[in-house]
Amino acid sequence: MDRFDIAPVSLETPLSLPPAPADPARAGFPLIASLAPVAGALALWAITGSPFSLVFAVLGPIVAIGSMLDARRSARRLRRRAGADRRRLVGELRLEIGERHRLERRAAWHRTPSSRSLLEHSVHPAWREAALPPLVLGRGAAASALRVEGAPVDADDRALLLAAARLDDAPMSVDAGAGIGFVGELPLARAAARASAVQFAHHGHPRHFAIDAEGPEDGNWAWLRLLPHRGARATARLVVVETGARPPSPKPRPSSPTSSAFAAADDRSRVSIVAIARTAAELPPGLGTIVTLHAPDAALVQHGGAETHVVPSLVGVAEVARWAQSLSAIAARAGLDDRSNELPRRLQLDELQPPAGTGLDRSSLSALVGRVAGDALELDLARCGPHALVAGTTGSGKSEFLLAWIVALASAHSPARVSFLLVDFKGGAAFEPVRGLPHVTGIVTDLDESEAERAVQSLRAELTHRETVLARSGARDIAGLDAGVELARLVIVVDEFQAMLERFPELGAIIADIAARGRSLGVHLVLASQRPNGVVREQVTANCAIRVSLRVLQRADSEAVVGTTAASEIPPDLPGRGVIDRGDGCPVLFHSAVATPSAITAVIARSAGMPRARRTWLDPLPPRIAPDSVTELLGDPRPTSPDGHRAVAPAFDGYGFGVVDEPERQRRSLARWAPQRDGALLVLGAPGSGRSTALAAVERAASESVASIAAAASATLRLRGPSSADWDGLVAARAAVRGAAPPPALIVIDDLDVRFRAWPEEYRHEAFAMVESLIREGRARGVAVAASAVDPLALGHGLRDAFGSRLLLRHAARSDLVQSGGRGELWRASAGAGAGEWRGRRVQVVMATESETPGTPEVSLLELRPDLPYAIASVAPRAAAALIAAAGRSPVLLTAGGEPAVRAAIAAHPIDASPPAIVGDAEAWAASWSLLANLREEAAFVVHGSAAEYRALMRTRGLPPLLDDGAGQCWVIEPGHDVRRALWPSRRIH
């Protein structure tokens, strides 16, 4: 490798001297090369005998000498080339050493800046409570951390290694714990001592370190009184002593305020002394470091038996006094000076006398919320924000501060200029006292999963609304709107923001969006949490210029919010005390005001006549909605129905049965079902979810669209009665749809999945088929079908798909709702009756009373006409024959294969008597098909049994009217008439 590594990856990476060039090996005498020509010449002479051949023997030594000279010349060339390469590498090494020294020097001055640098560049104090770092006295030569490996070759290499080990112009610092003495002309010594005091004040925390002076009462050290380092409870101190002054005594001296401050300082290691004298003999004994100043740029430092020449750091009185004032201001803003005692322990909001709101200035949201040292604390969320971050542990007064800020804003600004959306995730009632303010658009005490999505939609809708208003007005931001434009600033206050994000992380995205766009749109965030550090997103905190930290438990939490640990040092018996950064980067100790009940009542009373702010966040739908409260919920007038109630839906736009929550549009709307547009309606829900109420609401809406109550009753078919009534209604409705008769306008079927469960199988299948045909065929005739069910799978694929709309009420499980076609995020286990989902949005069905259950169709008792023969099919033919005989008619019993006997009995029947009644079971009638054919045109038929007996007797595949189970009914078919129901007598037939 012809080059060493000079890449400045790290100052700790060692460098290497290039190795010394190796001397080339010395060439030996070429004996064989010189003897070979001699041997050849002798052989040639022996062969030829010519003496001239011996001349070739002389060439051997000549070649040998020439080879030796050429080898030496090549060696010298190689040595010169290796030397040049090494000098080049040494030169690169010297440059690399210089570059690394520059980086090391810059890093050293960055770690330990000089006093001059602290004064000229206004470096923020690096206050610490631990032991102080070494104090910088000036600049000079120090040992370098740079390592150069390799053995030196010559004096230049040795000089290079010495230069690499020495860092010139480096900070020269010493430990001030053992004291420092400055000797020389007093102006020089004082300037150097001032520089040391600046170092001490820059690193020492004002709560734990103090700086005092003992000596002549002149203006040289008066600037020390400007420093914030004068606490009586300090654990370490710096004392500046001039010529003639004594070192601080461990016992109190009443005549010396400075000495009295050290009455408890028995340990000299806790007191650092900076002494100034003309000669070393005048210095106090025991100082660890003595600096002798010969000139402004030359001083000798004696420390630990070693002497070092340095260029001392010198500062003047005027510049250090200005610096001390700025340092004191920083301490005051952080609450580290004695003026923090001026703050009250309790402050009522009405003591601040906030100005009455004029409601004219859109560019400001100023309010007086507390007190700082010597003045009231004014916060302007619009000009200094646009957002605020509030931290505080339990019992720190965080909720009281938020409440006071809200009341102060409401007192200073009208609802036309500021509104509030208050979110309390502690689940308490912290914001309940201000609910009566017209500025408050909503108070949210907790959210479930569906309400979290509703919150996101509502806030996004608010941002869209504000963008639209600004675009229509041609304004860049809310401050540029004309006075006539109605758009108030919205302040969103979230207490326990951390708890909200832990439960609903998706809300973090909309909060970040508001944080980014809120300034121009006039939306402001006030996010409060016990520990915002690590919870609030960086893009949110970057826009939270106003930072408030009441008492916190961890130093890191205080530092993360307000940039200082002062909030973690607030006593727990001072609720309301905190540190605030008003957006200027300067934290200040303050005490929050408390909004007393009387102050809140006064603000509510003053704003009672003002119009309420526009609702940004509508309340969730109520669990019960009466028909006459729909208008209030919707916010728009509607006509009244003939019975005095307000109409729920306009006839031309379908039947209105509930109220829909539309948070993405910041409104509520009427849930409308338009059958011609939406198809049949299927209401699905668990038992007790309000399915019957929903159908009643639809039925009520349909009745309100009809001119009269009587017409409404005739226009609606309700399948909620006995089986026979339901069957007759379905048959009549299908016949009307397929014929010319007017069909019913609305067919209501409650519990469709179990409505026909107890029916005979053939009737059950036929009933479902009729319902499906009414849905598919009746739409063209204006027939609307609304049904309810618990289990949609029980309806069958064809019937289930025939329904075009679904109203999804509460389901037993989230998966059931999703399977029914709903949105899982809208499922709520605690949803009450009538709460559900309509077209992907939450809906609450209007309360309605179910109509009366239809009665059983009138059925007369079976009477046998005397002029007609009867063919009777019964499951108990002998018992039927006995009843007929008891009634005075002549029964003829038909058995399987007994047709000849029956014919003989008919032939023998008297002519003047009533025609006989032939009685048999289904099997007998099936076997007597010839007899049945003869009776079909003139006899009346009676079937007492099931549809099997009916089909056997009538020889038809159609179903007769459904008989009510347990009602003792039968079918009667008389010549020229349709089949009808009759009551089968239990004792006698008339």
Description:
This protein has a 10-stranded mixed beta sheet with strand order 13-12-21-20-19-14-18-17-15-16. A 9-stranded mixed beta sheet has the order 4-2-11-10-9-5-8-7-6. Helix 1 (31-48) runs antiparallel to helix 2 (59-111), helix 10 runs parallel beside helix 12 (507-521) and helix 20 (723-738) packs parallel to helix 22. The chain starts with 14 loop residues before the first strand and ends in a 7-residue tail after the last strand. Strand 9 (289-295) and strand 10 (298-303) form a beta hairpin. The radius of gyration is 53 Å and the shape is elongated. By secondary structure, it is α/β, with parallel strands linked by helices. Helices cover 34% and strands 20% of the residues. The chain is built from 29 helices and 36 strands. The model is unreliable at 1-9, 245-269, 637-652 and 707-713 (pLDDT under 50).
Would you summarize the structure shown here?
About 35% of the residues lie in helices and about 20% in strands. By secondary structure, the chain is α/β, with parallel strands linked by helices. Strands 13-12-21-20-19-14-18-17-15-16 form a ten-stranded mixed sheet.
Number of helices: 29
Using DSSP, what is the number of strands?
Answer: 36
List the strand order in the largest sheet.
13-12-21-20-19-14-18-17-15-16
Ends distance: 132 Å
Q: Specify the structural class.
A: alpha/beta
**Rg, nearest Å:** 53 Å
The gross shape turns out to be: elongated
For the largest beta-sheet, the strand count, sense and barrel status come to:
10 strands, mixed
Helix content: 25-40%
Percent range for β-strand residues: 15-25%
Round the mean pLDDT to the nearest integer and report it: 82
As residue ranges, the low-confidence spans are 1-9, 245-269, 637-652, 707-713
